[in-house]
Design a protein that fits this description.
single chain
Length: about 300
């Protein structure tokens, strides 16, 4: 029972909601945008659920690997995690991570070759984030290494289930998500600031302080949404996506909450972190609804 709870804590189920929710939204949008002839409910179970699970399992593998490589930091800032509290040992953590990576990539093969290529690219970013050259320790690069796989690559992988991932629409949405996450992912470093500094990880928060880090992240969180009307005006994306620019409002509140720097009692991180993820979920959901509605009307 102890090992089972340790396993659950190692993969951090709450964080798996992001790849599942976002990927299903993007896949649904891709299905209707590309006017796929198949029955939606059939492909939902045959393709979308396996694709979403493969991305979620890949995230679980990354979570396990990150905890294995961050156990010294977790001893200081998160001693309740399974490795510091000895519910899971380092060897078990490594084996679980390897098995999850293998399972995720194997499952992706059932979708299509392009999807598998994107999954391997995401795996590359997550592995190099935690293992040598360990980009997590490198100032500024650590934010980019979070934003690219969770934003651009994750969205393009999801879109590739039914459509061409280098279409203007998925590329635009993927780049918007990437820039937002490069800034927004700074929120995850607030609670680990002191522990990261002691173990040699340089983050914007522990180098510049929380307030300055918040101001540095603000343009990355605001400008992607403010830029949406420009993409519409240039004819790169359809006019009905202009309403997504309103997401600059919750993005600003992420900045506001970062300055307050308060941890949520029932979560591992701060209110700003929770709102950042909620904004990203809402972005993916609204994008999907707008794409489906726009294609039905059009």
């Amino acid at each position: 029972m102890r090992n089972m709870k340790g396993l659950v804590d190692l993969i951090r189920p709450f964080t798996l909601l992001a790849p599942i929710i976002v990927s299903l939204c993007i896949m649904a949008a891709s299905f209707f945008y590309n006017q796929v002839a198949d029955d939606f409910f059939s492909v939902f179970w045959m393709l979308m659920i396996p694709a979403g699970l493969s991305l979620a399992i890949l995230n679980a593998a990354s979570n396990a690997l990150n905890q294995v490589k961050d156990y010294k930091t977790d001893k200081i800032s998160k001693p309740y995690r399974p490795i510091p509290r000895k519910a899971i040992n380092l060897l078990q953590g490594k084996i679980i991570s390897i098995l999850l990576y293998a399972f995720a990539i194997s499952l992706s093969i059932l979708i299509n070759p392009v999807f598998t290529i994107f999954l391997v690219l995401i795996a590359f970013f997550t592995v190099t984030y935690s293992m040598p050259p360990r980009l997590k320790d490198k100032l500024f690069l650590n934010q980019i290494w979070v934003g690219i796989p969770r934003g651009l690559l994750g969205i393009l992988a999801s879109w590739s289930v039914f459509g061409n991932p280098i279409q203007a629409l998925p590329l635009s949405i993927g780049l918007i998500a990437t820039v937002f996450l490069i800034g927004g992912s700074i929120t995850k470093d607030i609670t680990d600031s002191d522990a990261d500094k002691k173990t040699g990880t340089k983050t914007i928060v522990n180098v510049y302080g929380v307030k300055q880090a918040a101001f540095m992240s603000l343009p990355f969180m605001l400008f992607p949404f403010v830029f949406i009307p420009i993409l519409v005006d240039l004819g790169i994306i359809e006019s009905y996506f202009a309403i997504l620019a309103l997401l600059a409002i919750p993005a600003f509140f992420v900045f506001y909450l970062m300055i307050q720097d308060k941890k949520v009692k029932h979560l591992e991180n701060t209110k700003s972190w929770a709102l950042m993820y909620a904004t990203y979920f809402f972005f993916a959901f609204c994008f999907s609804i707008l794409t489906i509605t726009g294609n039905m009307i059009g």
